[in-house]
Amino acid sequence: MRLFSTFNLLITLLILASCNSGPKKEGDFKILPSPTSVEISGISGLLASNIEDLVDQAKADFISGKALEGSKNKSLTFSLDANSDLKAEAYTLDISADQIAIKASTKEGLWYGVITLGQLVQDALDQDAALPLISVRDEPALKYRSVQLDVKHHLEKQDYYYELMDRLADMKINGIILEIEDKLAFEKQPKVGSSDAWSIAEWKKLSDYAMARNIRISPLVQGLGHASFILKHEEYKDLRDDPESDWAFNPLDERTYEVQFDLYSDALAAFPHAQYLHVGGDEVHTTGRGSGKSALELQLTWLNRVSAYAEEHGVTPIFWDDMPLQNAGVYGSIFNRKLTEAQVDSIWTVNEPNLNKYVDLFPKNCVYMRWNYSMPETPGNNRAMKWFTDHGFQVMGATAGQTRWNLMPLEESNTANIRDFALISIENKADGLLLTLWDDDSPHFELYGRGIAIFAEYTWSGQKRTSEELHTAYRQRTFGSELASADFSFINDLEGPVAFWKNALLDKKDRNQLRRMDNPIQEAVLTLPEANSPGEWTERNKEKLAKAKENQVKVDSVLYKIEASKKVAVRNSYTLEVYEQVAKVTQFSNKSLLLLAEWDLSKTAEEREAAKEKLLNLEGEWKSQLVELEKVYGKTRELNKPDDYILDQDHHAHLANQALKFSDWQFYVEDLFLQKIKEGNSLNMSGDVKNK
């Protein structure tokens, strides 16, 4: 009996020893954003599953306001030394055989050390690998790494914003500029807020949640221009600079400032941790109402008033800088890659006096935000930034992860522009950079994720990875290590079909402009083939048909990869579902075009009737597809505007503000095309038809 008991004890000890030894496999670790330096020297004896609990507890402690350095756990220790040479958000992370140590000079540095440790643990668990023996030294290249959230045309569901704060924190984003417009239920000017707006208390709750994760939300309240959300209302029409346009305020009317200051007051109450008050000010010309003041004087009159308000309330104003540069005649030099430095200097020599004579009117407390979404590397862009710094003004750049792309961001999520502006900002020792995510054409927000990750990488690390390496790291961090392989790369493959989709069902017209046409079916939607001219339509559209056929094969491959990815993704499968819906939308256009060619090239009446039946069935197929898409999108997104919402009357052709119902603006072209198919078939596809 004793021998049997001893044998059992030995087996038990062996099992325990085996369990404690943990996995011995080396893992492939991809920290994002890249640390300043990383040295891996082997395998740790610490179990990732045990450390995961410690990471979760450390995050919970930081979020609740507890001091991490007070932790008593021997496996994970924190050291806070305000006198060390580590920068404000810098940290060191060392994993030895049996201990993890994180050191920093600030609590924020400790927080980012925990974030990095969490990524190492996540990779180890994904791969059933050991934690590495690792030494990380890390600090941000730019102090302020901010993302714009633009809610002017729609809101996400509230839970989504809270999840987003966690995701942004994991990428070491530390700021948000939130373009609020009418999505705040203003108390001092209640007419401005839409009926679906969040209350001050609701936005404050999100602001507190973000701040607990070292993300400071600051409001952007559009002013001077982009004021349609205010000036479209009858009560404010007398404040218009042009009585016929809801675009711009009259900067010479004192009530303009009474209204804007009321909006500022409520916005700062909703976002009490704000560092900045972004006042907008872009893309606007004012008339002066016969005052004799120049456009630049008028804008600076307004800017001084709102900047003084910001200073009085303890925040720094941010102002888009384009209009002073346009009014002075130097703006064109910024967006011309062909100009040499000498040519740019020549343009500025002639026109810079137009700026200099007003230099004393530029408020000193303002940050002048140099936005450039396509060519930040030009000599003209650098010269513009230099003018502000040479005159003692603060300047910050703004790049973009989304501009005017309808269905999803393109150009590798604007990688080149984000990289170039980040590197320029780092080289010029700027304080920070903003990533704008415009809601003008309003793709699903999940599709912005890769661009945010790219921005996080370049603003924290500079250029440490190639574009391919960065996208690989994004896939690993977002979906899991099994999807890091290029075999699962599909987003870039989808960009061409998405770009083609935009106007595929139109005759050399742009989807954004259709609402301005009297009869878009006849003026813009693709002309149908005619029964008495077989083959002519196909010949006329041969390039478009070749692209549709090519894209059909490409999108089939993308859909196959997405389906395979969904089976192995360990997180964020919803992102894959959204991309899947985008791919299916593009495939509908490809199929429609090829079916029209099939009808046009039919050899017999029977073939033509069969093709006609397929075309008429497109409407039912599209309706089913739309139901599926809205079910997926609707998991996180408020799809439609309130019934009482008043659309802006401004001159911007923002697709997302052209109708109350999501499908009525996002897929207006598809609806018109299907209407034309129905009418065209009843007329044997002969000639054009008019809107009903």
Task: Give an account of the 3D structure.
The protein is of the alpha/beta class and 692 residues long. It starts with a helix and ends in a 10-residue tail after the last helix. It folds into three domains: 37-138, no CATH class; 144-336 and 366-464; 491-683, no CATH class. The strands form two sheets. An eight-stranded parallel β-barrel has the order 6-7-8-9-10-11-12-13, surrounded by six helices. Strand 11 (367-371), helix 11 (379-390) and strand 12 (394-402) form a beta-alpha-beta unit. It is 47% helix and 11% strand. Helix 5 (200-211) crosses helix 7, helix 12 (411-427) runs parallel beside helix 13 (449-461) and helix 15 (491-501) runs antiparallel to helix 18. It has 22 helices and 13 strands.
Would you summarize the structure shown here?
Belongs to the glycosyl hydrolase 20 family. This protein has helices at 2-21, 48-64, 107-127, 158-170, 200-211, 228-231, 254-270, 295-312, 322-328, 341-356, 379-390, 411-427, 449-461, 467-479, 491-501, 520-523, 536-540, 542-568, 573-600, 605-633, 662-666, 668-682, and strands spanning 37-43, 76-80, 91-95, 100-104, 132-138, 144-150, 175-179, 216-223, 276-280, 316-320, 367-371, 394-402, 432-437.
